[in-house]
Each structure stands twice: as structure tokens, then as C-alpha cells.
Amino acid sequence: GTIERRGTNGERRYALSGRSRILNRHILEAQTLCPRAWNGQWTLVITWAPGVVRRERDRLRQALRVLRLANLQPGVWVRPNNLDLSLEEVLREYGLDKEVIWAIGPLHHGRSDASLARDLFDLEDLARQIDRACRDLKTSARRLSTLPRDRALAESFLVGGRAIKALFGDPLLPPPLLPALWRGEELRARFAAYDRVGRALWREVVGFAPGRRPVPALGVRAHTPPHLLIATPEVPRRRESSKKEMP
To answer: Helix 123-143 vs helix 113-121: angle between axes, to the nearest 10 degrees?
Structure first.
């Protein structure tokens, strides 16, 4: 799960699970991850390997999302091999390096690569999400300084969170495979600027800029932007008495 319980001597402590911490780190890295020159090769992962069982499917889905793979057909996931992200390392982090089959090489599919990528990644819908995030970041950055501090913090929380989701959803395809007017680079630049504004705002409110702590795992409704995060220790819960109170 996303949260795990820890503790000794009857105390209960709650913290992000190890799997969620891995995903959160990759979410943060998505803000600076950039594609490299593409040599025409593709990454292919087959998830119908005999070792994959039901309890591993959540880990598998997270790993596939981190790797930005798209579903070609049941059990087969692909993407252009143009990311500075180690496939083997990510699979190992999620305990899947011995549970799936993967390869890197040419992909023969009888279509243009651009046509295949457009269908695999639903680029039209992703373009709308990125456009909306760019527009929201631009509008919010202009008005944050005019809002009361509590409203400004709340808005940067929500707008920045949606932008992080859009950043993590960008498949970072090679430029030849992207539609015209793709705004992925603009989104990364706008978010970096928005992050600086948010940090400055936070510094004004509490006297210091918070450190970068992993954001909540994807699937959690509130995605806290890095500029609104303060590292917090695990919170112990009071030990419950084994005796019932008399009425």
C-alpha cells in the first residue's frame, strides 16, 4: 500500500511504504528528466512472464508508468528508447527484474513511428492536459502576489499539483514523433518558474523555504508541489489502552 504502519513497544507510526518512496522519487525526477537523441530503437517489455502474479500487478503498473511505456497489445509495452532512465534499474527497484521479459532494439510494425506513437500514447489528450497545465501555471503565477497569503498558498498547492501530474504524464517522446506545437518543454520551464515563486511565497509566510521531500504517490488526490513540502518525521500515535473505560 501507499502507507505502512511501523512501531515498537505498542506505539504505532505511519509512513510512506518503500514502494511509494521509490515512486515519489521518480515523480520528483520527472521535473528535470529530458529525452536524449533517439537512434530509432525501442524499449519493449513483456509482462506476461510466468513469474508475474496478482500481488505484483500494482508494482508492475507503477514501474510501467515510471518508464513511460505504452500498451501495444495485452502484455506488451513499448516506447522509443530515448530516456536517460535505466530500464533494468527501475525494474530492479520494484522487484520485477526477474519477473518480466524486456529488450531494446528496432521495432518492426509496418507503420510510421509517428503514427504508432500517436495511437499508443493518445497524444491529442495529453496535449490538451499539457496545454491546460501551461495555461493554469501562467495565470496563477501572475495573480499569486495579488491574493491573500492563505489563498495564494492554497492555489499554488492545487495548480502546482496538477502541473506535476501533467509533467509525469508527458511521455517525453523524440521530437519527430510529437505533434506540432507540443508544449512539453514549455511546461517544464513554466513549472520551474512557478516552483521558484512558490518557494518565495512560502519563505515570506514561514521564514524559510521548505526542503524537497517526495510528493504523495500518484493516485493520492492531493499532489503537493515540492515548494510546499516540509520534511516531517513519522507521527507516533498514542498507545491505546487495553482496558475499557467504565461508563
So the answer is: 60
Cα separation, 56 vs 33, whole angstroms:
26
The answer to whether 228 and 152 are in contact (CB under 8 A) is: no
DSSP conformation letters of 161-203:
HHHHHHHHH-----GGGSPTT--HHHHHHHHHHHHHHHHHHHH
pLDDT at 7 (0 to 100): 52
**What are the grid coordinates assigned to 193, written together?**
518558474
Which of 184-213 are b and which e, b meaning 16 or more Cβ less than 10 Å from the residue's Cβ? bebbbebbeebbebbbebbeeeeeebbeee
Which of 143, 168, 172 has the alpha carbon at shortest distance from 66? Answer: 168
Concatenate the DSSP letters of all residues of 213-246 into one string.
-PPPPTTSS----GGG------EEEPPPPSSPPP
What are the backbone dihedrals phi and psi of residue 104, each rounded to the nearest 5 degrees, phi first? -130, 125
Prediction pTM value: 0.71
Residue with cell string 509525469: 168
Q: What are the extents of the domains in the chain?
A: 3-118, 122-234
Predicted local distance difference test score (pLDDT) of residue 212? 44
**Residue 39: predicted pLDDT:** 95
Assess contact for 102 and 87: CB atoms under 8 A. Answer: yes
Q: Across the strands, what pairs with 80?
A: 42
Instruction: With CA atoms as reference, report the closest residue to 38 among 136, 119, 106.
Output: 106
| Cell numbers given for 111 | 507503420
Instruction: Give the mean pLDDT per block of 10 residues along the chain (247 residues).
Output: 50 50 63 84 84 70 90 94 90 86 93 93 95 97 90 89 90 94 94 87 66 37 37 35 41
